[in-house]
């Protein structure tokens, strides 16, 4: 569980999610995201920016899950009662 | 409408009959929720009537400030991905079913559990009142009954399936309610802008021309300064995964991997906020009202068309589903928390034991020893909680509930130090946890009272108008670190149980 691989994955992913939270608030959001143009699919960019962050977070979470990087050294479907 | 209520009832009761019926089952469903149920339980309990009625309303009132829900949802549940699997494992091994139970054991301190449990109950009531109000608004629109009567009827149904089914009842009805809600909102959210303006994109073209200030911060009349928006988002991100009814979802999953999987797919529920935002802009262009009736007002825009009654029914279902799926989870969690986290630890004191015995009428085994009695006590609390919320709905009207919500949202963030230090800091101990909780909760209650009774004094204490939860959090962390370092080191055996 505490292989160096998963340790690094943990550090990097926590850093990533801290950054993604920062992208939604001051100062990054007003600097980059808080504008109408360019419109994407007709939606204002301020909305696209937030949706983009959600999509990126989804992709990263899916990757972490698939590669079993975070605290996941156990079977996919334990029976009722889990490891007991 | 009534058929829908009947279906929810039948499914909830039937699902409940599958279990063995002990407390562990009533609270944690024998830890057997599969992927589909988990997905909707996590999603539907978050998307409350408040999100549904409040999001379009927020667009009209404050413009792009309404993106707030998307922004905090993008990160809010992520902490659960990191600690959820471990919490699931510890819970299964040690037999924990509530958040406070886990941390009372980790800190070897029943008072931690009593503090967390009582604060949670205080936070739940206004949250429940909002859900009841949502149900009342719909029933009023459909039947013309007063809000309180309609809400009473809907929640009578909710009560029956929560009481009969426990967490299983909650789980399977959430699946139905989630599906209804997702379909209804997407259909209406895409159809209405297309019908009125040609397409969603064309609608935004008009917003850009007529009301560009509604598309970026600080919004119309500069109502939402970016600093205020940022602090709200940070508060919500930090507090979101700490809500006890969210945290308890870790215990109900079939496996630890499943907890993580439901966090991965959670954003798909966020995309359901999108059509609500579209609807908000439709209402803005069409000059809709800026209160919580706006969603139903929108449907009346196409009055006279053949689809009108269908749309109206869809929307009514969606709001009802949202209200019920959040309300049932809150009621269920509230019952479990009161009995397991507050009553059981207090029972070890002789005076409380005597009082409980009197209440239950004569000589009985203690609640701790009598599993059936625990489940019964939970049912009593669930009914009382629903009743109190219903009475508050009737007596308070709108404004004081919103005030109370301010306090409610400041509570879960006070659990952050206990949860994070408890799971990740070996040195954290009971003295620290108690001090932190008392300091944090004490601060928010004191500030809340000062704000309500002496606004002048509040302005002196808190000149920047920071969120009271944030101020409480600072006091909380400082107290917890200082007292943990001064107190004894937790034993190695204890740390091992909690995988530290």
UniProtKB/TrEMBL annotation, chain A:
Pfam families: DUF3311. InterPro entries: DUF3311. Keywords: Membrane, Transmembrane, Transmembrane helix. The chain crosses the membrane at residues 12-29, 41-65. This is Uncharacterized protein. It comes from Enhygromyxa salina. The lineage of its organism: Bacteria, Pseudomonadati, Myxococcota, Polyangia, Nannocystales.
């Amino acid at each position: 569980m505490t292989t160096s691989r998963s340790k690094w994955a943990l550090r990097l992913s926590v850093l990533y999610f801290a950054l993604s939270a920062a992208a939604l608030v001051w100062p990054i959001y007003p600097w980059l995201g808080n504008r109408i143009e360019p419109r994407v699919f007709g939606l204002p960019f301020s909305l696209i920016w937030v949706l983009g962050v959600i999509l990126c977070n989804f992709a990263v979470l899916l990757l972490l899950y698939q590669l079993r990087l975070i605290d996941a050294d156990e079977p996919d479907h334990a029976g009722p009662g889990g490891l007991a | 409408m009534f058929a829908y209520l009947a279906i929810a009832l039948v499914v909830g009761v039937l699902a409940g009959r599958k279990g063995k019926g002990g407390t562990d089952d009533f609270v944690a469903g024998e830890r057997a929720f599969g992927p589909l149920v988990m997905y909707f339980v996590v999603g539907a309990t978050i998307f409350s009537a408040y999100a549904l009625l409040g999001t379009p309303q927020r667009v009209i009132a404050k413009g792009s400030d309404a993106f707030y829900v998307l922004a905090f949802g993008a990160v809010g549940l992520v902490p659960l991905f990191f600690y959820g699997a471990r919490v699931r494992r510890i819970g299964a091994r040690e037999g924990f079913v509530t958040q406070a139970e886990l941390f009372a054991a980790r800190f070897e301190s029943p008072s931690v559990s009593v503090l967390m449990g009582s604060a949670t109950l205080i936070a739940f009531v206004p949250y429940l009142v909002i859900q009841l109000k949502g149900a009342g608004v719909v029933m009023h629109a459909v039947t013309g009954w007063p809000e309180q009567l309609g809400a009473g009827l809907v929640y009578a149904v909710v009560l029956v399936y929560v009481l009969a089914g426990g967490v299983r009842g909650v789980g399977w009805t959430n699946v139905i309610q989630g599906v209804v809600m997702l379909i209804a909102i997407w259909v209406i959210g895409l159809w209405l802008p297309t019908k009125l303006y040609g397409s969603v994109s064309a609608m935004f073209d008009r917003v850009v021309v007529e009301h560009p200030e509604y598309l970026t911060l600080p919004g119309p009349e500069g109502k939402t300064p970016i600093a205020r928006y940022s602090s709200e988002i940070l508060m919500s991100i930090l507090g979101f995964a700490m809500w006890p009814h969210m945290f308890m979802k870790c215990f109900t999953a079939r496996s630890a991997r499943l907890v993580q999987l439901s966090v991965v797919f959670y954003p798909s529920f966020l995309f359901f906020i999108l059509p609500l935002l579209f609807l908000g802009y439709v209402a803005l262009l069409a000059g809709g009202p800026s209160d919580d009736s706006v969603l139903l007002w929108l449907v009346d825009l196409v009055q006279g068309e053949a689809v009108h009654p269908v749309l109206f029914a869809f929307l009514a279902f969606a709001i009802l589903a949202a209200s019920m799926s959040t309300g049932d989870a809150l009621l269920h969690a509230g019952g479990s928390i009161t009995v397991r986290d507050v009553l059981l630890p207090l029972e070890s004191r002789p005076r409380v034991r005597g009082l409980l015995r009197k209440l239950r009428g004569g000589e009985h085994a203690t609640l701790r020893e009598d599993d059936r009695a625990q489940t019964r006590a939970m049912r009593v609390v669930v009914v009382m909680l629903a009743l109190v919320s219903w009475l508050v709905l009737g007596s308070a009207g709108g404004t004081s509930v919103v005030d109370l919500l301010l306090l409610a949202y400041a509570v879960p963030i006070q659990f952050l130090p206990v949860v994070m230090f408890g799971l990740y800091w070996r040195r954290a101990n009971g003295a620290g946890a108690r001090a932190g909780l008392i300091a944090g909760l004490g601060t928010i209650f004191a500030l809340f009272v000062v704000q309500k009774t002496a606004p002048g004094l509040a302005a002196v204490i808190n000149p920047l108008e920071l969120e009271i939860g944030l101020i409480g959090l600072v006091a909380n962390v400082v107290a917890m670190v200082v007292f943990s370092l001064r107190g004894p080191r937790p034993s190695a055996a204890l740390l091992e149980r909690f995988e530290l």
